[in-house]
């Protein structure tokens, strides 16, 4: 019988780069292994703007959650592909506006889950929960989320950079549809992902895929927009990440348009 610690060690795969840890390195974090920082440096040599793109996506999360908890009045969040904790995580952003907000984080990296349980603590009025699951198993995610969230009331589903980790053969649009179908009208989808519109980024991702434990699949902006099928887009629609409701008076970093994002509501 495998000891639990041995199982966790095997799942960590410290001999191969992992997307959450490489992303953490690109964001300036310290929760990564040498193999992850080495992969991050290779990416940056090929596409030097990648760290800025990572920061840009993180700022989209902040703007989207502020909209969802504020203007849209959502009080429940299902964050799939959590990544390693950093500043302004989903529950902090939401509970800053509405302390009673309830958040369920989902990831399948044991290092992410350990850090999440230690660092992502809820307000007294709200709740945070953590689910060890893969986006490829939406039924399990929904069953576990229902222990913390009331799925008869609106939920904001956030999926940042996660669908690129799903191959076309695994039918990513069907996974999104399954999750949204289980949520009631008034629920939202906030999603962003990398595009295949930049040759240097495509080369960098190809190098990363050659050594990583998990591969990333860049798609056209039109393919990413198709994940919102059947939902009503929130203005300005599916756009380059820097263009989605930018903060007034704050200039975004000058980077290539290599990711798109959007928010849409289920009517």
Automatic annotation (TrEMBL):
Q: Which UniProt keywords are listed?
A: Methyltransferase, Transferase
Enumerate the GO terms in the molecular function aspect: methyltransferase activity
Q: Which GO terms describe its biological process?
A: methylation
Question: Mind telling me which Pfam families this protein's record contains?
Answer: Methyltransf_19
Q: What is this protein called?
A: SAM-dependent methyltransferase
């Amino acid at each position: 019988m495998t000891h639990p610690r041995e199982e966790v060690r095997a799942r960590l795969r410290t001999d191969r780069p992992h997307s959450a840890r490489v992303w953490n390195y690109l964001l300036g974090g310290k929760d990564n292994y040498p193999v992850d920082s080495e992969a991050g440096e290779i990416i940056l040599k090929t596409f030097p703007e990648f760290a800025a793109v990572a920061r840009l996506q993180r700022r989209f999360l902040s703007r989207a959650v502020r909209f969802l908890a504020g203007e849209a009045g959502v009080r429940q969040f299902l964050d799939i592909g959590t990544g390693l904790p950093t500043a302004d995580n989903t529950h902090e952003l939401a509970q800053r506006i509405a302390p009673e907000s309830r958040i369920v984080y989902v990831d399948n990296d044991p290092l992410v889950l350990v850090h999440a349980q230690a660092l992502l603590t809820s307000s007294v009025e709200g709740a945070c929960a953590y689910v060890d699951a893969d986006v490829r198993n939406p039924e399990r995610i929904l069953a576990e989320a229902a222990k913390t969230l009331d799925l008869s009331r609106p939920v904001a589903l956030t999926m940042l950079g996660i669908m690129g980790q799903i191959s076309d053969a695994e039918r990513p649009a069907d996974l999104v549809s399954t999750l949204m179908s289980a949520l009631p009208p008034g629920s939202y989808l906030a999603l962003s992902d990398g595009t295949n519109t930049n040759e240097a980024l495509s080369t960098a991702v190809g190098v990363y895929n050659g050594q990583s434990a998990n591969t990333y699949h860049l798609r056209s902006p039109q393919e990413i927009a198709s994940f919102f099928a059947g939902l009503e887009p929130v203005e300005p629609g599916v756009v380059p990440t820097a263009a989605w409701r930018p903060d007034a008076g704050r200039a975004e970093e000058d980077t290539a348009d290599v990711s798109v994002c959007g928010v849409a509501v289920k009517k």
